[in-house]
Design brief:
The chain has helices spanning 17-36, 45-58, 82-95, 97-121, 126-144, 150-169, 179-189, 193-212, 218-234, 242-253, 275-286, 292-307, 312-322, 324-334, 336-341, 348-374, 396-404, 418-425, 443-453, 464-467, 482-486, 512-520; strands at residues 384-386, 410-413, 430-431, 473-477, 492-497, 501-506, 531-533. It is mostly helical. The chain crosses the membrane at residues 20-41, 101-119, 125-144, 188-208, 220-242, 267-285, 290-306, 312-331, 352-374.
Length: 544
């Protein structure tokens, strides 16, 4: 059978603007609902909120030296998230968890509104709009379930990309002057503003090439140069000046032990992380309606996504903003019969059923997740804390044991638990290392932590974190192999363990009473709920 002539197939399903607007808006709303209703505490949320509270109490913008650790006391602290943390502290002190929940959802709007504008501006077909919105929502849901300053990067990245892409199509547009404002706010809220610097550089070079080839006028290029130059300059308006840039570049080029800083192929991850790559393949291999600047930007961002898992979210945002037109064209070419049969006024009911079915599936998944957590006493406007696993699960039971036994001192714990431990034990106790990494700690200390985590029952001899620093208490995940190493040491005694965590005390005089008591009778495991509400203070929980 002879196939249809693709040149005479409608470029998109024929429909009125009103139908397109109504359909995409409803799908957009369901996707926003999917991403904004369930909120889980990020492992660093306790630190972010505490640092903001301390800044407010001390009437300062930042603390320039670290007060929380015993391994490198007084170390210089370059806090690239200070403005976000100031917001966290004020919102939580004023409105509780709902304030933080609303902050997270505001930034989801900042992500999704530019996405919807891009779909409209670049004339996405209804099928492409549904595909991009739903798959982007599923991919982003893996990243935006947490309240974290990184959401500022997601939102500002979406705004920056939309502004730059719009300027390339409309060089006389004055909206490009918003770019310095976005960059100044971004640079003080999260270090991810370097992503904005990168894509601005790419667009600037592209437009410079366009001037050389007479595709753009010189005055439009000079306007972009001035705007981007100003945008880069205002990133120096921060409490640290150029030192902020130096710290971030050092952090970026150094291999990190955090899972989300690992290359995509090195860590186990959800299949949803690969969705943007599938959509990229659909756009560039199935369509002829793509532009070289979009391909270049996508390649640059995709390289970062492959290098660091956390940048997959930026790639998902770039795909929905840059590729509506080529994906629309690709769907048209891959499914020409469908495009013909579902177009026109007579097929409006079928299209409505497709939209309704998509809304039902997306909303149903969201409601299912909401109900599961609500059964655990975590309503959708609250922030849940899981208490059974490693981070983002928190060792609530172990902290309750420490508090019941009045134990305090220098605590070495998992980096994912450390800021929860700071919240619960500071100032009586200090920690060895936490999730702030290179913003505070040296590469030497980080290497010593990695070395400690790699110890097992076959390891022997001293280790820096236990023998060169005044470590007194260990709060470690029960799954670590290092527990086999500790069992061989006579100077450390395990006083508590459950399925999640273990507690060890150094065999020193001030702990002898507790050590003797635990030898006579094992400490009971506190019965804490599987899920509780942030900040998960043990003494305020309802035990089950």
């Amino acid at each position: 059978m002879k196939g249809p002539d693709l040149e005479h197939v409608p470029g998109e399903w024929t429909m009125s603007d009103q139908e397109w607007w109504l359909s995409t808006t409803m799908i957009w709303g369901c996707c926003l609902f999917l991403t904004c209703t369930v909120t889980i505490a990020d492992p660093d949320l306790w630190g972010h909120t505490l640092y903001g509270l301390r800044a407010i109490e001390q009437h300062v913008l930042v603390e320039y030296s670290d007060p929380f650790c015993y391994t490198e006391p007084g170390a210089i602290w370059v806090n690239h998230e200070w403005l976000s943390e100031l917001s966290f502290g004020w919102l939580w002190s004023s409105f509780g968890n709902i304030g933080l929940w609303l902050w997270r959802n505001f930034w989801l709007l900042v992500i999704f509104i530019p996405a919807w504008i891009a779909l409209r501006k670049f004339k996405a077909s209804l099928a492409a709009a549904i595909l991009l919105l739903v798959y982007t929502a599923f991919c982003l849901s893996q990243f935006v379930v947490f309240v974290r300053p990184q959401l500022v990067t997601f939102g500002c990245f979406a705004l920056t990309l939309l502004l730059l892409r719009h300027y390339l199509n409309h060089p006389q547009s004055k909206s490009i002057w918003y770019l310095p404002v976005v960059m100044m706010f971004w640079a003080n809220s999260h270090g991810g503003f370097l992503a904005g610097v990168g894509i601005q550089g790419v667009v600037l070079l592209w437009m410079g090439k366009g001037v050389y080839q007479s595709q753009y006028q010189q005055r439009d290029f000079f306007r972009l140069c001035i705007t981007i130059g100003l945008a880069w300059t205002v990133t120096l308006i921060n409490p640290y000046g150029i030192q902020l840039h130096q710290m971030l570049w050092d952090h970026l080029i150094t291999k990190q032990i955090v899972r989300e800083w690992q290359p995509l192929w090195d860590a186990q991850q959800a299949l949803l992380y690969y969705i943007p790559f599938l959509l990229i393949g659909l756009a560039f291999f199935g369509s002829r309606k793509w532009e070289w600047i979009d391909l270049i930007l996508i390649v640059v961002i995709a390289y970062q996504a492959i290098s660091h898992i956390r940048h997959v979210a930026l790639l998902a945002i770039a795909v929905i903003i840059l590729l509506p037109m080529p994906i629309s064209d690709s769907i048209r070419r891959l499914f020409p019969y469908l495009n013909q049969q579902w177009g026109g006024e007579r097929r409006r009911i079928i299209r409505s059923l497709l939209v309704a079915s998509t809304m039902l599936v997306v909303s149903g998944l969201a409601v299912h997740t909401i109900m599961k957590l609500w059964e655990e006493s975590v309503p959708p406007w609250q922030i849940g804390v899981e208490t059974r696993s490693r981070a983002p699960g928190m060792p609530v039971a172990s902290i309750e044991v420490l508090q019941d036994q009045n134990l305090n001192g220098n605590i070495l714990t998992d980096y994912g638990w450390a800021q929860y431990v700071i919240w619960q034990t500071f100032p009586e106790s200090r920690i060895a290392f936490d999730g702030r990494y290179r913003t505070v700690y040296s590469a030497k200390l980080e290497a010593e932590l990695v070395q400690f985590q790699k110890l097992d029952k076959n390891s022997h001899g001293p280790t820096p974190l236990l023998d060169q620093y005044p470590t007194e208490i260990l709060l470690l995940p029960a799954s670590l192999n290092v527990l086999g190493y500790l069992e061989q040491r006579k100077d450390w005694v395990q006083i508590y363990n459950d399925q999640q965590a273990t507690l060890w005390l150094k065999n020193i005089p001030r702990f002898q009473e507790v050590i003797a008591e635990t030898k006579r009778k094992r400490l009971a495991i506190p019965q804490v709920p599987k899920w509780c509400l942030f900040p998960a203070d043990p003494k305020t929980l309802t035990h089950k």
